[in-house]
């Protein structure tokens, strides 16, 4: 599917390239209060959902676009891609070990005539939610559960360990409120939080200094990451406006 054609569509993405093998049976995850999943999109998924009910803290389009940005950030930190003035550049086409990162990179390599970051955020966002949830299920971080009345049921993904699910939110909130230094991983996570407008809930009741510190950290991050986050903010801002006026 051409990303330029699929950017505004919300149906499932039909992938041309074969998906790398992934485990069929969920692995057992041992949760601890200080556990990081090691994958930015996974931790953003936890932050964007209530750790007890699985209900999203963001509306669908902001959540989907944030997850898409998380997957692109993973590839950036893996040295596979970079961002430059609104465009994605592939730097290393070698497939990552992670099957979902592999799948996203495979698509970027196959469609290098399309480089606009905003187009890719919309395109990948069409399937990012289910793909990230599947990856998390495969390693035992979440499990699907049907909720709601029979004729209006939906699937939510509940964490298998509440401490693990709550840790990204608690860690980032405390670091920002106390103006502590953030590592590279958490700076990227803070950027996703800021540009999906999730920081309003994260820093509820915090002094204005905490919000200023968050913006300062993101504004002083690496130029390629700032470039990705700026496009994320533009896409989410447009969908928020559309959501409020529809």
Describe what this molecule looks like in 3D.
The chain has 246 residues and is mainly alpha-helical. It is 53% helix and 8% strand. The protein has ten helices and four strands. The protein has helices at residues 3-6, 40-47, 60-77, 99-110, 117-138, 162-177, 184-195, 199-202, 208-219, 223-245; strands at residues 81-84, 87-90, 142-147, 154-159. A two-stranded antiparallel sheet has the order 1-2. Strands 3-4 form a two-stranded antiparallel sheet. α2 runs antiparallel to α3 (60-77), α3 (60-77) packs across α4 and α7 packs across α9 (208-219). The two termini are 28 Å apart.
Topology:
Blueprint: H1 3-6, H2 40-47, H3 60-77, E1 81-84, E2 87-90, H4 99-110, H5 117-138, E3 142-147, E4 154-159, H6 162-177, H7 184-195, H8 199-202, H9 208-219, H10 223-245
Antiparallel strand pairs: 1-2, 3-4
Helix pairs in contact: 2-3, 2-6, 2-7, 3-4, 3-5, 3-7, 3-10, 5-10, 7-9, 7-10
List keywords for this structure.
single chain, mainly alpha, 4 strands
Brief summary:
With 246 residues, this protein is mainly alpha-helical. It contains ten helices and four strands; from the N terminus they run H-H-H-E-E-H-H-E-E-H-H-H-H-H.
């Amino acid at each position: 599917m051409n990303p330029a054609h699929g950017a505004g569509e919300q149906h499932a993405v039909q992938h041309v390239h074969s998906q790398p093998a992934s485990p069929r049976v969920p692995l057992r995850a041992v949760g601890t209060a200080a556990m990081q999943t090691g994958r930015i999109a996974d931790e953003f998924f936890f932050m964007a959902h209530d750790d007890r009910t699985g209900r999203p803290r963001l509306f669908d389009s902001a959540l989907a676009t944030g997850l898409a940005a998380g997957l692109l950030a993973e590839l950036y930190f893996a040295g596979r891609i970079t961002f430059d003035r609104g465009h994605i550049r592939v730097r290393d086409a070698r497939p990552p070990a992670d099957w979902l990162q592999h799948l996203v990179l495979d698509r970027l390599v196959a469609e290098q005539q399309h480089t606009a970051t905003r187009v890719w955020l919309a395109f990948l966002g069409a399937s990012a939610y289910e793909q990230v949830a599947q990856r998390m299920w495969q390693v035992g971080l979440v499990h699907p559960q049907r909720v709601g009345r029979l004729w209006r049921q939906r699937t939510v993904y509940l964490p298998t360990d509440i401490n693990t699910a709550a840790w990204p939110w608690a860690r980032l909130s405390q670091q920002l409120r106390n103006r502590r230094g953030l590592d590279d991983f958490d700076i990227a996570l803070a950027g996703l939080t800021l540009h999906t407008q999730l920081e309003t809930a994260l820093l509820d009741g915090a002094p204005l200094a905490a919000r200023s510190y968050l913006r300062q950290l993101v504004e002083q991050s690496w130029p390629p990451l700032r470039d990705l986050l700026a496009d994320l903010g533009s896409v989410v801002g447009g969908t928020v406006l559309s959501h409020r006026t529809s």
